[in-house]
Amino acid sequence: MTYVQEAVNKIVELCNIPSPTGYTYKAIKYLIDEFKNLGFKYYLTNKNNLLVDLGHGDSNAIMFTAHVDTLGAMVRSITNKGTLKITRIGGYPFSHIENENCTIFTRDGKEFTGTIYNIHPSVHVYEDSGTIKRSEENMEIVLDQKVHSKEDVIELGIMPGDFVSFDPRTVVTKTGFIKSRHLDDKASAGILIALAKSIRDFAIEPKRRVYMLFTSYEEVGHGGAANIPEDVTEVIAVDMGAVGSDLESNVYSASICAKDSSGPYDYEIVGKLIKAAKFAEVNYTVDIYPYYSSDVSAALRAGHDIKHGLVGPGIYASHGYERTHIEAIEATLKLLQKYLEID
Fold first, then answer.
1. DSSP-based three-state secondary structure for 8
2. With 90 as the cut, is the pLDDT of residue 343 above it?
3. What is the C-alpha to C-alpha distance for residues 65 and 188, in angstroms, rounded to an integer?
4. Which domain holds residue 122?
5. Which residues are annotated as part of the binding site for Zn(2+)?
6. pTM of the full structure
7. Is 56 left (phi over 0), alpha (psi -120 to 50) or beta?
8. CB crowding 59-93: b at 16 or more within 10 Å, else e
9. What is the set of active-site residues?
């Protein structure tokens, strides 16, 4: 199996593990098992980040980050008719989750399925079914349970504060497209697993010590704020490349971010990423993401003295039902492999 196919397989597996921000334990456990099997040292932090030490050099270390937390929701309240009102986890318009199947996770370990609708879902009944504002007040989960009242729902064990995950609907087409919720950022987490395997197999030989940090709170802004080892001088967030009408990025290339809402990325690091892409002979773009922030942005806000960069596969329809192509996965993986080998 090629490292690219390994990355795709891990992406599919990760996308099918529910992990809305704050409920990432299953995804982190999956990563622990992966890196244990690869033979690398790892450390689970207090905030449920996973730090992996891939060895090699003794100083001037580099760290790659990816986040396994995803968009999701939490039960806000239970209505008198037995539906659930929700509050968002992460930033997305409610229209992006309308008519989506979902799973509710209770505090005592139960799971219940349901579907997210607007409160006027039937066009045969409501004149404003298509125009009603998609907002927190006008969206609800209809449970796949025979319930008629708030008391019926409470009896099931569902309560405010329970986590809600959205069905990923992951598909890999024969033409190489990968379609799924949560490619942000499980696409990059899968790429990093494949990168680690290529290091384990001596397919590449990094010139510096390498760490990987898989975070659990990126979607709410503080995933990468802590857990950076003292010998790390450079942190590169491996996250999605946003695709838009006035950007160069596309679903067949690795996207190198020069600036996002947190400001410019390090001039030297952006240049080195471009150099690595050219040496690796892969398709790449250099882009500016206007409404974007990353784990490395959080690290800088926390006061870490590091050089910082951001690269990832181009992802279409970010924070919705996303899509990319295996060519973008390959381009990003090969870029990172070459980056570790150049001075």
1. helix
2. no
3. 9
4. 72-166
5. 67, 184, 219, 239, 319
6. 0.97
7. left
8. eebbbbbbbbbbbbbbbeebeeebbbbbebbbebe
9. 218
